[in-house]
Amino acid sequence: MAPSKPLSRRMQKQGPPEPLNEGFFGKKRKSAAPTNGAIKKQKKGGNAPAVKAVANGGPKHAANSAGKKSTKGDFKTQQKIAKQPLSLEEDEDDVSDLSGDAIDDADVMEDGLSGLAGADLDDALDSDAEDFADAPSDLEEEDLLDEDQDVVQKGVWSEDDDSDGEEALTAANIAGLSQKLDARRAEEEEDAEQELADDALQTNIAPADLDLSDDEAGKTSSLAPDLQLLRTRITEAVRVLSNFKELRDPTRSRADYTQAVLKDIVAYYGYSPFLAEKLFGLFTPQEALAFFDANETPRPMVLRTNTLRTHRRDLAHVLINRGVSLEPVGKWSKVGLQIFESQVPLGATPEYLAGHYILQAASSFLPVMALAPQEHERVLDMAAAPGGKTTHMAALMKNTGCIFANDASKDRAKGLIGNIHRLGVKNTIVCNYSAQEFPRVMGGFDRVLLDAPCSGTGVIAKDPSVKTNKTPDDFLRLPHLQKQLLLSAIDSVDHASKTGGYIVYSTCSVTVEENEQVVQYALNQRPNVRLVSTGLVFGKEGFTRYQSKRFHPSLKETRRYYPHAFNVDGFFVAKFKKFGPTGATAVKAQGTPAEVARLATNSKADAEAEGVANGDHDEVPENSDEEVAEETEFGGFDEDEDQVYIERSLKKTMRRKGIDFRATKSKAVKALHPERVTNGETVKVNGVVEKATEDDVKVNGKKVVVDGSSKVNEAKKEKKKSAKKAV
Ligand SMILES: C[S@@+](CC[C@H](N)C(=O)[O-])C[C@H]1O[C@@H](n2cnc3c(N)ncnc32)[C@H](O)[C@@H]1O
What is the ipTM of this complex? Predict the structure, then answer.
């Protein structure tokens, strides 16, 4: 039997870890696979038993799952299906190890599966799974082996020879063989050189930055550093650091080794020295290396079944028939499907357009599963665009209750509206505030999700620019914003909620500044909350100590996710329970309403400007350009149209109050339309006559005095106030 190689990451399951293995650290870098459009066939990792067994069960499975008689035209699809390890029987697995809220979550999803395609189909799928496992090993073996296995099985003798082996070789064909081997070796050497050159191009290395003059790496070509040598040196340094007492060179300190390995990591993987050090410090040296390696390969593409429109099993069948090779994402999710290969762009299938699924990273299921929103609740999603998590919540709530989906970026909120409509969500109201403005805008929610804007250090595989574009300032600015938003999230929850009173804080970053430190700050500022279990069945515990910092022991309840450990994006999830009202002093400490409003306006402007840079790396952007344009149009905000609605509602209110609209019309309408002030025009401000500048705005003849960016917001507030007064 051919030795089996480890599966490539995209073929590996997402979820609980397999033990790390030494061989992994010697792995070469790979370039990221494309995630857009149809996914190219992925190289099968040589998992011989699985491939063979599945293949043997294939045609029968295909016929059953398609529910059709096999025709010649169908056969290609069947072969494709045959090669994938489909096993949907885990839909029925219980999740008894989920606790608390997560059980509710599972209930919802269980229900989602109750109307599946019937017993026949279930039997067919289940028995197929058994067939795969029991398949005899000698059936059609050659057809089923992938290229790598082929080489191992046949040895290096000849592509034409079968395994009759050496005995069949004559002196003549030994000579021929020798020539063939030479040619192959030359070819391989050429390939290896090319690969190294490609690797060098993919790395942001300035050769001049590498001080390798004192060692062999410096003797290499001036075009690129010797990546292989760097790799060997990194691996060796990590080995020594992992067993420092025994393996160290007595003349070198731990700091020497660490500095040297960091320098090599910077050169090899292309990180800024600052970020390499920050990330290296999070792990043991060995794990850090695994983390850096994992960031070089993309995570598997995953889609979330929209249970408002379909069931996972039905969706899987339809997509399989379209030539998609897929598998349930793992036992921990009832709605995720991991995609291995697709003949069609997954952002343009009829099922996608009909909202049967959304392309969403597996890790972003986790915060919603932790929040576990219940039917008929009032829920706030504070930073919601483009809506992966909002629409997941709506599905768990079965379109009941009410979700307020807020995002500070109006542009991104358009995408959110598009997704809400495509996925058939009907219980959601979209709003466009800076989250700091809550709970002033509205409070008393049963649950709040804060999926915060962040640095994106957990999603480097998706966005390699993070390697170099984050500065120390980002790790001050972002945590500052995250802390403010988390306090707002806590204050927006009703501690007396009969069903909830929960807040979930999540980021797609792995740094302590954006996670444990933010949570600790919230615990300090809000003694009316405590951390509770996330109910998630996998994930590493959050830090309770990190370098010189000490956190509350309950930080153990938070969960960290890493690409190298779980094959998911790096993520952090914390769940709080609010058990008392927020004290007046705590609220005061946040600043006066004017100060908070100013901060909110500023961070709103930041969100508009920064967009993706603020950590939305969630959804695979597969929508076609036309589609995006359509969604934008569809979800667009039309101020003039809004004005008509506002006036209409104003009229209604006045009529209800018995006020004659026409009599007060001029006053009311004037209040609704702030005028631009002409430069130099005099206006009264608090009874004092002043000259206005061209930026100023006046409402009812009164100049609105505001500074800089908050001008428009203040004007709007003033406008509302005057309109109310007029009524
Ligand atoms: C990580 S993304 C959210 C992804 C989203 N939860 C999802 O699942 O699709 C962070 C979002 O925060 C928004 N944002 C940034 N600053 C904000 C603020 N002050 N208030 C509210 N939203 C903000 C960004 O526009 C961005 O859409």
Answer: 0.99
